[in-house]
Amino acid sequence: MGHHQGPTIDMTVSGDFRDLPTRKPSLVAIAARLLMFGIALGFVAMLFWLAVFTLPVLLLAGAAIYLYARFAPNRGAGPAGPAIRILRF
């Protein structure tokens, strides 16, 4: 039973080791990455803010509409017959 170790990630197909990067990223590249990260973080923060502040308002509005539809008085028959109730409880 031979013990086989997986391939080394930094080796090429011919078995040579890859050279390490010789240059560091420029300040423009670093600034661009920071800008993209900041934009993404701002977008996520905006989505979180919308979820935190609008979902409770929508839930309360839905509950109010449900209660109104549930307990609204029947307005009786009009000139075209009885009103059609869409929500039947």
Largest sheet, strands/sense/barrel: 2 strands, antiparallel
Question: Would you list the SSEs in sequence order as H and E?
Answer: HEE
Indicate the low-confidence ranges by residue numbers. none
Helix count? 1
Report the count of strand segments.
Answer: 2
Q: Briefly note the structural class of the backbone.
A: mainly alpha
Shape: elongated
Radius of gyration: 32 Å
Characterise the protein shown here.
- Helices cover 51% and strands 4% of the residues.
- The chain is mainly alpha-helical and 89 residues long.
- The protein has a domain at 27-71.
- It is elongated.
- The model has no long low-confidence stretch (mean pLDDT 80).
What topology emerges from the helices and strands here?
Blueprint: H1 27-71, E1 77-78, E2 81-82
Antiparallel strand pairs: 1-2
Offer a concise description of the structure.
By secondary structure, this protein is mainly alpha-helical.
From the structure above, extract its key features.
single chain; 89 residues; mainly alpha; two-stranded antiparallel sheet; 1 helix; 2 strands
